[in-house]
Design goal:
It is a single chain. The chain is an alpha+beta fold and 483 residues long. The longest helix has 29 residues.
């Protein structure tokens, strides 16, 4: 019998095209929640019913009357939380994703109270802290270490996730040499993680070995798994977290979420409603949060130091060297280096060896800050292909590389695009300063040999030049020149 018109209960239907029930040839089996898929030409008997979870109409399979022929390929069974879509809808998703050259990312919120299963083993205020600590332990011993962060299905959620949306985001970012990020927040903290894959079905054994106990004990409640290889915290203060979350937004061109505003971009806030998580979003800052060295293994004062200490140092920086509005524009990894350097700078040492090690370590942190800022601002100017600054990969430009490029005149395109920034680069590069800075930046801090040491006066000069102690520092110079 061919399908025509309205579907009636207990009807026998020959599937002649993939657009008959809910937009595709799929039937809900209520007893186990799976989607059974059938190819064109199959004859099935089904009845109409309601999903007990949400009351939505669905078709419950009664029996298959005519099976596929032996030479037909058997279609893969999908996890219960994944919606299968019509080819035309899938093409629409591909077209929407591919228009975003600068990357789409994911955003999730989590309940900070869900941490009892992991608190003792991986100490942390929330499961995000425990996840971070467990990932850190893994990466210390394994360069390829990873964990799965799970998206718990809400009891109020209607509809299933569309697999191709999330897969295409990662494919498109990879094609454009960009990482994919998962932003995670409980509105008191904001984390960012590097996503390798989004999966909708992972074995219990894999989750047991590569995730928190909380997720292993709640595997049936997870509707999507994010495979994470690196992670860092961006904020541990509520007010700052809300500000940073507002940098995430849903473009009016982005039709991948459950709610679309065709007339304006929508900033993410804790008060957005009617949205199906995980959100697919963009980041206004366009910041590259991860590099060749894992961020999870680096010192991070927002985790390693008492919150009162980092808050005090931050206010000191705002008051005396870098205004708050300028500090907010600095890449987050550089912000953390500044706080870490200032905390270490104020720490007293006992022996001369400790002093030598501290002086070089702190100087290197300030120089890494300058390197990150220079690289970030130069990339934002979109260098022409003829310039050394135009790189196909997304890696940070090293200070030595920047010094060579400026010496060769590869920054001269800025004379017309950003005249003030061009002048700032000229000033920072004068008298071979970048070359000298690069030499200090590349010294090894551990087990200092005599030729690796720097004087305390050198540290004082580096700090004064970059932060601007008693003068206009390079950080303020660069940002006032660019903006």
């Amino acid at each position: 019998m061919e399908y025509k018109g309205r579907i009636q209960p207990n009807q026998i239907v020959e599937l002649i095209e993939p657009a008959q029930i809910g937009g595709c040839s799929s039937f809900k089996i209520q007893d186990n929640g799976n989607l059974s898929l059938f190819k064109e030409g199959v004859v099935v008997e089904f009845k109409l019913t309601k999903d007990p979870r949400n009351g939505r109409k669905c078709a419950e399979l009664i029996r298959v009357l005519v099976e596929e022929t032996a030479n037909e390929e058997v279609m893969e069974e999908n996890p219960h939380n994944v919606r299968n879509i019509h080819p035309a809808e899938n093409q629409s998703i591909l077209d929407n994703v591919r228009q975003f050259d600068y990357g789409l990312h994911f955003y999730l919120v989590f309940n900070p109270m869900f941490n009892k299963d992991d608190f003792e083993k991986f100490q942390g205020d929330t499961q995000a802290h425990s996840f971070y600590n467990q990932l850190k332990d893994l990466r210390e011993n394994n360069d390829d270490g990873y964990l799965y962060w799970g998206k718990i299905r809400s009891t109020e959620t209607n509809g299933d996730l569309t697999r191709s949306k999330y897969e295409e985001v990662i494919k498109n970012n990879s094609k454009n040499n960009s990482d994919t990020y998962l932003f995670i927040s409980d509105f008191s903290h904001l984390w960012v993680a590097k996503v390798e894959e989004v999966l909708f079905k992972v074995s219990e054994e894999e989750i047991k070995n590569h995730s928190l106990n909380f997720y292993a004990n709640n595997i049936d409640r997870v509707e999507a798994w994010f495979k994470i290889s690196d992670m860092t915290i961006l904020s541990n203060r509520s007010a700052e977290t809300i500000d940073l979350i507002s940098n995430l937004y849903i473009s009016k061109k982005n039709t991948l979420n459950s709610r679309v505003d065709q007339f304006k971009d929508v900033s993410v806030t804790p008060y957005l409603s009617g949205l199906r998580y995980p959100l697919i979003i963009q980041d206004k800052s366009k910041e590259s949060y991860f590099g060749e060295e894992p961020e999870v293994l680096k010192e991070n004062p927002l985790i390693d130091k008492d919150k009162s200490v980092t808050s005090m140092i931050r206010e000191h920086v705002y008051s005396y060297v870098i205004p708050k509005e300028v500090f907010a524009k600095i890449p987050h990894s550089a912000q953390r280096e500044i706080l870490s350097a200032e905390i270490e700078f104020s720490t007293k040492t006992v022996t001369k060896e400790d002093q030598y090690s501290k002086d070089l370590g702190v100087a290197r942190k300030y120089l890494i800050v300058l390197e990150k800022i220079l690289s970030d601002l130069i990339k934002k100017t979109h260098p022409p292909k003829s310039s050394m600054f135009n790189r196909e990969d997304d890696r940070m430009l090293s200070m030595n590389y920047i010094a060579e490029a400026v010496q060769n005149g590869d920054h001269n395109y800025l004379r017309e695009r950003h005249r003030k920034l061009h002048l700032a680069l000229e000033k920072i590069s004068s008298k071979q300063k970048l070359r000298v800075f690069s030499t200090i930046r590349n010294k090894k801090a551990a087990h200092l040999a005599t030729d690796e040491r720097i004087s305390h006066e050198t540290l004082i000069n580096v700090r004064r030049e970059i932060l601007g102690v008693g003068k206009l520092g390079f950080i303020n110079l660069l940002y006032t020149s660019y903006y």
